[in-house]
Write a structure and sequence with these properties.
The complex is a heterodimer of chains A (186) and B (206). With 186 residues, chain A is mainly alpha-helical. Helix content of chain A is 83%, strand content 0%. Chain A has two domains: 104 residues; 47 residues, no CATH class. Chain B is mainly α and 206 residues long. Chain B has two domains: 112 residues, no CATH class; 58 residues. The radius of gyration of chain B is 20 Å and the shape is globular. The N and C termini of chain B lie far apart (48 Å). The mean pLDDT of chain B is 87. Classes of the chains: A mainly alpha (186), B mainly alpha (206). At the A-B interface, helix 1, helix 3, helix 4, helix 5 and helix 6 of A face helix 1, helix 2, helix 3, helix 4 and helix 6 of B.
Chain lengths: 186, 206
């Protein structure tokens, strides 16, 4: 019994280690690997569960990769399982970035690298705009959304604390549900 | 104490970002740039590094900033301790919240307050990323401009501005036309164009 549990914990850790190692850029890029490891190989979850797990990961704070790992780990083996899966998914990043951080600054001093990064910065702005367009497509499109986008944008440009903006937006959303409920009762 | 500060800062970043990935950029700008742990340019460079290395962006940047700040405080041992503190900090809110959510899975799924909060949080995330694009864009295309009055016409005709604008336009067009194009490929092409433009300036313009 104990051995079986240990084996499951090890499988969770090593599967999510692989997922962390082979995903570049994080987020949605992970989905194919998660499917392969958790649905096809280990049968921990079913195909249709993936969308639901992603929705939960997106509606809770934190990186999607970590949220998904924690959730599947918990479902399969409780709190220990969630810790094993989470450590698995972050360990590759931790090791690779720790190694890179040793020489990144010296690397940046090379003339050709500086030219390269001048180009890369322009490309990265384009990448972020692409992500923005994708997110906008999944956003509800109604008057309230547009007003929140407008006000939050102005507040952010005026350098209002980001955490305050996020809390206010969440409260407005909750208030809108409560008001809709009152209207419904009348 | 820098290690506690790293842990708390990245704990806040983990706690207040919804949607992961680039949705984290505004908060990271706010916290990491605000504390002087990195410059806007370094942050953009790091987004590129993070796209080309395995793992989620949030973990990568936490590990990197933690390593750099820890190194300044305590050398090699500080490097490890700093990256561990920052990474644990950014992961811990997820771990705690998801364990709770998994426990009360069905209730969470149908909770109208959570659905309501999301109605406000989604548009806010979009606005925050828009403002991140504005500040990233100004540091990439118009470096050194602090106020609107600093902007002059000569900035827009400088060699640096034109090359950056051209690379940006090419990459955005490629991405919009080819849906499945890999970010790493785009970064490599941007790098190649950047190197070409840099040496071309040395040869012909100067």
């Amino acid at each position: 019994m104990k051995n079986k549990k240990l084996k499951l914990l090890w499988q969770l850790f090593s599967s999510f280690f692989k997922i962390g190692l082979f995903t570049f850029g994080g987020g949605m890029a992970m989905i194919p690997f998660i499917q392969k490891e958790t649905v096809e190989k280990h049968h921990w979850i079913e195909e249709k569960d993936i969308l639901e797990i992603l929705a939960i990961s997106e509606s809770t704070p934190g990186p999607i990769a970590v949220n998904t790992a924690t959730f599947i780990g918990y479902q399969k083996a409780g709190t220990l399982g969630s810790v094993a899966a989470t450590f698995g998914v972050i360990l590759p990043s931790f090791i690779v970035i720790s190694a890179i951080s040793l020489f990144l600054k010296q690397f940046m001093d090379i003339q050709a690298v500086q030219y390269a990064f001048a180009g890369i910065r322009a490309g990265v702005v384009a990448l972020v705009i692409k992500a923005l367009i994708k997110l906008y497509k999944s956003c509800p499109k109604n008057l309230m959304s547009y007003i929140i986008i407008g006000i939050a944008f102005i507040a952010a440009v005026l350098e209002v604390n980001v955490i305050i903006i996020i809390i206010c937006a969440g409260l407005i959303g909750i208030a809108s549900v409560l008001m809709a409920k009152k209207e419904g009762k009348r | 104490m820098i290690f506690l500060e790293l842990f708390i800062t990245f704990f806040m970043i983990g706690l207040f970002t919804f949607g992961g990935g680039y949705a984290m950029i505004p908060l990271i700008q706010d916290q990491v740039l605000g504390k002087g742990w990195a410059t806007e340019e370094q942050l953009i460079d790091f987004i590129a590094v993070s796209e080309s290395t395995p793992g989620p962006f949030a973990i990568n940047i936490a590990t990197y900033v933690g390593a750099e700040q820890g190194n300044e405080a305590l050398g090699v041992f500080g490097r490890f301790l700093g990256s561990a503190c920052a990474t644990l900090g950014v992961v811990l809110p997820s771990l705690i919240i998801i364990i709770l959510v998994a426990k009360f899975y069905l209730k969470f799924k149908t909770n109208k307050y959570i659905a309501g909060a999301m109605k406000g949080l989604r548009p806010a995330a979009i606005a925050l990323i828009m403002s991140a694009v504005v500040s990233m864009g100004s540091s990439v295309f118009l470096p050194g401009v602090e106020r609107i009055t600093d902007i002059s016409l000569s900035l827009f005709t400088s060699y640096d501005f034109i090359t950056a604008a051209v690379i940006f336009a090419i990459m955005l067009t490629l991405m919009l036309c080819i849906k499945k194009i890999h970010p790493i490929l785009l970064i490599c092409m941007s790098a190649g164009l950047g190197v070409a433009a840099g040496y071309a300036e040395q040869l012909f313009v100067r």
